[in-house]
Amino acid sequence: MTTFTLPELPDVTFTVTRGSGGDSGLPANWIRVVGTQPGEPTEDNPTPDPVVVSEVGFAGP
Fold first, then answer.
1. How many CB atoms lie within 10 A of CB 35?
2. Which among 22, 32, 45, 61 has the fewest CB atoms less than 10 Å away?
3. Residue 32: closest CA among 20, 18, 22
4. Which residues are within 8 A (CB) of 8 and not within 5 positions of it... i.e. 6 or more apart?
5. What are 3-32's pLDDT values in tens digits?
6. For 37-46, what is each residue's pLDDT tens digit?
7. DSSP 26-48
C-alpha cells in the first residue's frame, strides 16, 4: 500500500492498493486508488473517520 497527496488537493490523501487475491479482497491483477479527506468533527463525534471522496479500480491483464 502506498499513500500520496497532490498540491492541488491538499486536504485529500490518496491510497493505492494492489490486489493480492487473498486477504486484500481484490483479484491479483487489480489496483485500487482511494481518495479520502478528514471528516467534519461534530459535538456527537469529535474524531470522525475519513470520508471517501473518490475510488477507482483498474484491472490488469
1. 19
2. 61
3. 18
4. none
5. 999 999 999 999 998 887 666 677 888 888
6. 999 999 999 9
7. S-TTEEEEEEEEPPPP-SS-SSP
